[in-house]
């Protein structure tokens, strides 16, 4: 079974199953590797601290913007309305009947 990245992400978010467990495992492993790399980086290459840190208002604005972005993405993924036209809803009624099976000729 071949799926694109967009289909894989959609299935992982909205359905349970094998693709979702792969996505969760990949995400957890990636976060652990990222945490390990960041910890090792700060251990071996310590960064000098500036005398003045970033102004608190800038930090608060960045955190508020990040949280707002996460909330907007959550609502965009979970609460989109999918419009189905009446023609699509009644399309099952317009399907042709399959041809009859071939009868054996004696």
Keywords:
106 residues; 60% helix
Task: Lay out the secondary structure.
Blueprint: H1 5-14, H2 18-44, H3 56-78, H4 86-89
Helix pairs in contact: 1-2
Walk me through the structure.
With 106 residues, the protein is mainly alpha-helical. Helix 1 packs across helix 2. It has a domain of 44 residues. The protein is 60% helix and 0% strand. The protein has four helices and no strands.
Q: Mean of residue pLDDT?
A: 78
Task: Report the portion of residues in β strands.
Answer: under 5%
Q: Rough shape? A: elongated
Number of helices: 4
Please identify the oligomeric state.
Answer: single chain
Order of helices and strands: HHHH
**Largest sheet, described in full?**
none
What percent of the residues sit in helical stretches (DSSP H or I)? 55-70%
Q: Distance between termini?
A: 44 Å
Judged by helices, strands and strand pairing, the structural class is mainly alpha
What low-confidence regions span 5 or more consecutive residues with pLDDT below 50? none
Total strand segments: 0
Rg estimate, integer Å: 26 Å
Summarize the structure.
With 106 residues, this protein is an all-alpha fold. It has helices at residues 5-14, 18-44, 56-78, 86-89.
